[in-house]
Structures are given as structure tokens and as C-alpha cells.
Design goal:
four-stranded mixed sheet; alpha+beta
């Protein structure tokens, strides 16, 4: 084995098996974050974090993300009151995605549409083209909560 392949192997082993947190951010400086409810493991949302968002999440125990549309850091629930308190943070094998297990405060709604989960529609097939079917109602009216957005 050559020195460079040994170094690559050592680096891969350290990344996959080591104790050092070494997030691998993409070209935009972001890492994907999957968010689940720590009580029932329901998938609540998918978001992105930059280094500052991950650092703040670890330090405060409250989920922070990077908004790609607003190009800014945001503390989840700051406007709605549905703050995500982090019970556990996991990172995948090659450290390019994180999993947050959270408890949601307020009305237990994560989605900006007022629903518990951002995954409130399923793809239905059969008669013609695939279509979306909604399986949950909003828990709050977004128009009254997000008045400044």
C-alpha cells in the first residue's frame, strides 16, 4: 500500500470510527439535518446547518439552522414559539449529515404551514398521474404567526 492510500485509509477510518466530530460541509458550507421527534421518531423536517448553526445547537440545546432562501441563521421556533429542544444529535458514518432528535415546544408544530411535520403529504398513484394527498391539518394559522415574513 502506498503512503497516500494509507493516509486515505487512516483518514477514512478516523472519520468513520473515531471520536472526533469532523462535519463534512458541502461546497456551500452546509450539512443536511434530518429532524425527528425524540418521543415517537416521526420525521418532522429536513433542513441545513452551517458551522455556526451546528455550534449553536450543540452549545444551547436548541435547534438552529441555516435558511438557504433567506441566507441567514435562524433559531427554530423563534417566531412561532414551537422551539425545538434537542435531546440527541447523531452524525452519519461519513459525517456529512446530522440527525437531531428533538422535543417541540409550543403547539408541537414544526412546519411553517402550521403542521406537526413538513412531510404532511404523500404521493398517491393509480388513476393517471401521481398526485399529492394531504393527511394532516394545520395546528395553527401561519398568517397570524408569521406576520413579518
Amino acid at each position: 500500500m502506498t503512503r497516500s492510500s494509507t493516509q486515505t485509509s487512516d483518514t477514512k477510518a478516523a472519520l468513520e470510527e473515531g471520536a472526533a466530530l469532523s462535519p463534512r460541509y458541502d461546497a456551500n458550507g452546509l450539512i443536511t439535518a434530518v429532524v425527528t421527534d425524540s418521543r415517537d421518531n416521526a420525521v418532522l423536517m429536513l433542513a441545513h446547518m452551517n458551522a455556526e448553526a451546528l455550534r449553536l445547537t450543540i452549545e444551547t440545546g436548541i435547534a438552529h439552522y441555516w435558511s438557504r432562501s433567506r441566507q441567514s441563521l435562524w433559531k427554530k421556533g423563534e417566531t412561532s414559539g414551537n422551539v425545538q429542544m434537542v435531546d440527541e444529535i447523531r452524525i452519519d458514518c461519513d459525517q456529512d449529515a446530522v440527525l437531531l432528535k428533538v422535543r417541540v415546544g409550543g403547539l408541537d408544530a414544526t412546519c411553517h404551514t402550521g403542521r406537526r411535520s413538513c412531510f404532511y403529504r404523500k404521493v398517491v398513484t393509480g388513476d393517471g398521474a401521481p398526485r399529492l394527498e394531504t393527511d394532516s391539518a394545520p395546528l395553527f394559522d401561519p398568517a397570524t404567526v408569521y406576520t413579518g415574513n
